[in-house]
Amino acid sequence: xxxxxxxxxxxxxxxxxxxxxxxxxxxxxxxxxxxxxxxxxxxxxxxxxxxxxxxxxxxxxxxxxxxxxxxxxxxxxxxxxxxxxxxxxxxxxxxxxxxxxxxxxxxxxxxxxxxxxxxxxxxxxxxxxxxxxxxxxxxxxxxxxxxxxxxxxxxxxxxxxxxxxxxxxxxxxxxxxxxxxxxxxxxxxxxxxxxxxxxxxxxxxxxxxxxxxxxxxxxxxxxxxxxxxxxxxxxxxxxxxxxxxxxxxxxxxxxxxxxxxxxxxxxxxxxxxxxxxxxxxxxxxxxxxxxxxxxxxxxxxxxxxxxxxxxxxxxxxxxxxxxxxxxxxxxxxxxxxxxxxxxxxxxxxxxxxxxxxxxxxxxxxxxxxxxxxxxxxxxxxxxxxxxxxxxxxxxxxxxxxxxxxxxxxxxxxxxxxxxxxxxxxxxxxxxxxxxxxxxxxxxxxxxxxxxxxxxxxxxxxxxxxxxxxxxxxxxxxxxxx
Length: 481
Description:
Elements: H1 5-16, H2 25-33, E1 38-41, H3 48-58, E2 62-66, H4 70-82, E3 87-90, H5 96-107, E4 113-116, H6 118-121, H7 124-130, E5 137-142, H8 165-170, E6 180-185, H9 190-200, E7 206-209, E8 217-224, H10 227-240, E9 245-249, H11 253-265, E10 270-273, H12 279-290, E11 296-299, E12 312-317, H13 324-331, E13 341-348, H14 357-380, E14 386-388, H15 394-405, E15 409-413, E16 416-419, H16 425-447, H17 452-459, H18 463-466, H19 475-480
Parallel strand pairs: 1-6, 1-7, 2-4, 2-5, 3-4, 5-6, 8-13, 9-11, 9-12, 10-11, 12-13
Antiparallel strand pairs: 14-16, 15-16
Helix pairs in contact: 2-3, 14-15, 14-16
């Protein structure tokens, strides 16, 4: 660490305009400047981005920021570029000119921060530039690190290869080169924390783990018995929050388009947001929402992380997510200014006899995972003991991700795998059981009668804090009082 702490604080005040850090930002920044591996679990809105952006700006060389969503990357890079900081991004939807200019800036050591997806990081054209001996890479930041261990319909197998990025890069760098890895997320229980550390091959990581509790967020759910009942609850919420900014979460592009069109016909200022939109349309919707031209957005989980707006007063889960971690991520969009905000979920009645919508969605989610596991087991029987990912298709990459997560395959470098000679069927069974448990955990959350926040705090490993905890403002606490 070449700067004094006074210089670090001065740079922070000069660029970001805050008087001082909020705990534990200062400790995290000290750790990253010292080149230590770190695992950081902080609530959404806790100021995670500054913790890795500031050390990257203060050091010479490049910091790679792996991020799951284009919207998340663009939001952060636009903010950094507005401050005239040397940051850029790479993703599949850039023009050829933009991509070429960014790669040239990387090759010339002109950047401090490069944001990219795991798939882009591990694409051969980008990798060939990153391994150049003269290119100094200070560290690897994994933003939204829960994506590495979170199974579901959004699973990205490229995450499973990130653990071999550091040793593979170091083989091409001058002897003695050091490269730190830091993983950031708002949602990781103790088991997820262990999996993240193991998969990324973190070396004695310094841990900063904070409770997910947000005292200004009021949590509630409503049981709906029919599609009409769901629409009635929606209109009641919109009438109660006639001018307040919000988000409505659904689970598919089609559902987002249909609901946004229906509400638009009723003169609500809204639009559908999902990964299928063009980059221009997404940026325009984000801008319209952030400036108040759109009161709310009907969105999929493509909007679940990273779009920053301080005054979101309400979140509605029109369709609940499949996992508790997804729920916590998505409600985290609300109340980032610290003011009172509401997160309401509309949950179909438990039997699914009158309104099978949620039950069918959960069944599809589980069947899809079962299908993926069967395909992985079948493929494993025909794979050579060693091979190259570049010779396989995308579906095969998904299977390799499953095999890696069950301990039956390892990566020698980002492109070369080695599998176990014999398969362990029990490993697939354990993965199925873990997924079933994760789904049931969210179902229990809707049905249990104790404090909502107590359940979340306990589920994410803060058992001491959860003892006798009552937030006093969720629907369960209010009903019991």
